[in-house]
Amino acid sequence: MNIASLATYIPPTRVSLDQVVAYRGGAPSEARTFGQLFGMRQASTLAADESAEGCFRALLQQLAESLDDGETIDAVILVQGLPARSLRQSVNLPALRQASSFIAADAPLLTVNQQNCATLFWGLRLAERLLASGKHRCVALLTGDTLADFDLAERYIPGCTMIGDAFAAALLKPGGGQRRVSGIHCFYHHGFWQGLDGSREDTKRFYQAHNALVDQALASYPEDLRERAWLLPHNINRLSWQTWLRHPDNQQRAVATDLISHSGHCYCADPLLLLDSYAPEDTGRPALLLSVGLGGWVGCAAITSDVLPEAAHVQ
Question: Is the entire prediction scored with pTM above 0.85?
Answer without folding.
Answer: yes
